[in-house]
Amino acid sequence: EAGVAQSPRYKIIEKRQSVAFWCNPISGHATLYWYQQILGQGPKLLIQFQNNGVVDDSQLPKDRFSAERLKGVDSTLKIQPAKLEDSAVYLCASSLAGNSGNTIYFGEGSWLTVV
Amino acid sequence: AQSVTQLDSHVSVSEGTPVLLRCNYSSSYSPSLFWYVQHPNKGLQLLLKYTSAATLVKGINGFEAEFKKSETSFHLTKPSAHMSDAAEYFCVVSDKYGNKLVFGAGTILRVKS
């Protein structure tokens, strides 16, 4: 079974530039998550989708971050303009449905360095 | 709000000796708890999960964890460490509906030969 796919794996940009990350969840998974993992910290939830609707985006910095999940499958996460503190690993995850007992599967992450 | 505290940022053991990674949680309801492992440049992998069934949970690669409500703990153990166990381990609690995962800060496990 194919896992959660993410691209690009690595990206280096200058501050104030923009960047976009793409995620393809496991086939059939209705729930998709984007997490931010800053070096030395545990991942933090940015946004959660159920199909193509947003369930939770309370920790998404909406002045610069945006995410969409058109057609309820793939998702993109965009940062514009980027700041130095956005340097982190962006993890995409998916699960069958957003309720207890369903395992959440993570991709390998997209590493962002802002210089 | 729920939270987890991993009591050690780094743990170092010799190969073949027991592993203990400590985790305390805080939750206003009966929690679901997880341990995830992250190898360098790899994605997070689920080791085991507790969802209000048996309090002793067995996971992959010989790991297990015991849910102790009286101590609000969910420590991860393994009888004998292997070199391939060297990685970062995260204790995780989910929200009431199992949707949102809240991660601890992580414990880096080093295994010496």
Give a structural overview:
The complex is a heterodimer of chains A (115) and B (113). In chain A, strands 2, 4, 5, 6, 9, 10 and 11 form a 7-stranded mixed β-sheet that branches. Chain A is mostly beta strands and 115 residues long. Chain A contains no helices and 11 strands. Helices cover 0% and strands 48% of the residues of chain A. Chain B is globular. Chain B starts with a strand and ends with a strand. Chain B contains no helices and 12 strands. Chains A and B meet through strand 5 and strand 10 of A and strand 6, strand 10 and strand 11 of B.
In short:
Chain A is an all-beta fold. Chain A has strands spanning 5-7, 10-13, 19-24, 31-37, 44-50, 53-56, 65-68, 75-79, 88-95, 105-106, 110-114. Chain A starts with a strand and ends with a strand.
Which word captures the global form of chain A?
Answer: globular
Q: What structural category characterises the helix and strand content of chain B?
A: mainly beta
What is the radius of gyration of chain B? 13 Å
Helical amount among residues of chain A, as a percent range? under 10%
Q: What sequence of helices (H) and strands (E) makes up the elements of chain A? A: EEEEEEEEEEE
Give the CA-based shape of chain B.
globular
H/E series of chain B? EEEEEEEEEEEE
As a percent range, the share of strand residues of chain A is over 45%
Quaternary organisation = heterodimer
The low-pLDDT segments of chain A are: none
Number of helices of chain B: 0
> Count of DSSP E strands of chain B?
12
Would you tell me the overall average pLDDT of chain A?
Answer: 93
Q: Report, as a whole number of angstroms, the end-to-end distance of chain A.
A: 37 Å
- Termini separation of chain B comes to 41 Å
How would you characterize the largest beta sheet of chain B? 6 strands, mixed
The pLDDT mean of chain B sits at 92
